[in-house]
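Why does residue order matter? Because the sequence determines the fold. Keep that principle in mind as you read this record.
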Amino acid sequence: MFLTFDKVSIKNKRVLVRVDFNSPIEPGVGAILDDKRFREHLQTIQALESSLCIILTHQSRPGKMDFTSLEHHATRLEQLLRRPVTFVSDIIGSAAYEAVSKAQSGDVLMLENLRFNAEENLTLSPESASSTFFIKKLAGLGDVYINDAFGTAHRSQPSIVGLPEVLPSAAGLLMEREIQNLTRIFTGAPRPITFVLGGTKVDDSLAVAENVLKCGIADTVLFIGVVANLFFIAQGHDIGEPSKEFIKKLGYEAEIERARHILETYPDNICIPTHVAVKENGERAEYPVGHIPDNCPILDIGTESLPTCVEMFRNSGTVVLNGPAGVFEQADYAFGTNEIIKYASLASFSVVGGGHTAAVTERLGLVDTFSHISTGGGACIEFLSGTKLPAIAALERSREKFKCHTE
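Structure:
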């Protein structure tokens, strides 16, 4: 197990804190449009008031329109913290070293976008990452490394896996909370346990389903969204040309056989909608699965399928929800996603797996109705699929390597 925040000596130390402030920004301006990720990390940063806190984060990636400097990020963090935050327009150069040397315990610095350095954009093993020039120089700025960026925990990039190789390291409070809540799903969550898997990332959803069904964790798996469309095909139903073309466009035709195998292996544990909503003549129309018009795309779960879902949630001790039921961005097809989110929280332990589902949950004002809402869509789904996240493995290795540095 990795070290937790309270087990590392941080008083009067220079602490490098990896967070995930990657946020929607105003094009051409850089102003932050949504500060949710900032707010998630505040508790960890506030707990470092006896240290020199050096914020490490990124914004987007090279080639993207929102790949920009972090000056506005520093301003927003300062507003939320209600403490001065010094932006350093450098990462590992002399300006960064000078800023750190002049700072004192209690100060907060934010270095420039880590992905401005080419090596940070590489996927490397921990050993290779730790030997990069980037990590050698970055590590020289700090005494301790805290990883609070669960949203990037599935990335094997230098700041994620390289720093724990060269500095005593621990998980931040957000990272710790994420791992505790997600681990609970596998170790003692109230039963029955229902997984709701949807959206367009079919391969990820199938990986989660295979893991939780094989391990006996899930009592029921409900498939919605494009994932459900794949299972309709596996059952022998015609879902119409637009939906078939969409699956082909996404490159998921080969996953149909995988879905068929899941159906055959776990017939008593799988639930699929019986009705869908399509776009017909520009309007919402609903049909039973098996009677879908050939020229109409499936865009939502049908209302007649919802009572079964609601009853399932009422009878579940735990519900894990990841992925929307349809094209929720369009008002006519948001109904299924909205209703499933509303009722999924009825379970005594309810988890939203980040990404689009978390965004809709917040928009509906239902954040407080769930036990846990993950801050990392990709990291969360990899964790649920049974994959050891690179960031967690790196923190575990660091604990073994730097035992003498812990309290």
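The mean pLDDT is 96.
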